[in-house]
Amino acid sequence: xxxxxxxxxxxxxxxxxxxxxxxxxxxxxxxxxxxxxxxxxxxxxxxxxxxxxxxxxxxxxxxxxxxxxxxxxxxxxxxxxxxxxxxxxxxxxxxxxxxxxxxxxxxxxxxxxxxxxxxxxxxxxxxxxxxxxxxxxxxxxxxxxxxxxxxxxxxxxxxxxxxxxxxxxxxxxxxxxxxxxxxxxxxxxxxxxxxxxxxxxxxxxxxxxxxxxxxxxxxxxxxxxxxxxxxxxxxxxxxxxxxxxxxxxxxxxxxxxxxxxxxxxxxxxxxxxxxxxx
Length: 278
Hints:
CATH superfamily of the largest domain: ATPase, nucleotide binding domain
Pfam family, one: Fumble
Protein name: Type II pantothenate kinase
CATH class of the largest domain: Alpha Beta
GO biological process, one term: coenzyme A biosynthetic process
Keywords: ATP-binding, Coenzyme A biosynthesis, Kinase, Nucleotide-binding, Transferase
Oligomer: single chain
GO molecular function, one term: ATP binding
């Protein structure tokens, strides 16, 4: 059996993974001017870096918004397309080991996919994500470079940006500790340092996504959330989500290959399709 290639062609980046014998092989991502260039560039680099020949590839599985631009077999290899939300669910389930959870796909925007065994359903989304972070950073910090934004944020103080419960009350409120956020950006001043602004933007995006995810699970009994996508690489995830866990008695999980879960799910869909036709 050859290697299965899963490719997630997104708005800004393309992620590619190999799947062989149930194991994820050498995930990579690249950025290019357009989705077609990005896809073929990622595929070529993957083959080169891993010394894989075309004849060794059994199947290519495409997903993501950019997959719509591809209507022919990639390099003559059998190629199929996978619904992005199904790929999200399959990849997150595989990487987290959880059969029942809500997958929070944090890309340019954010989507919520509910998984309950083999029942994988898109249940909604949020127009806040990496695109929001970049757009606000361009306007407020005059940069869209994520490494620079992260570097600034690491030196920021969120107490200078967000209004906390401790700022408005001398005692914790019912269910709300003193360090809980009362209002995002409410304390920001016109001359706030870039470091504080950068941290404020990141915390606002991550906290908004987390809160919306929790609301999406109301009445479902689900307490587990699997975070996937590029924003999982932000170090502030390790601060924002544990706080939300304590506040709402839920669990946020970031798998090892969280950034590549959708591409992994696309590759997994091939085996699932084969089993369903037997």
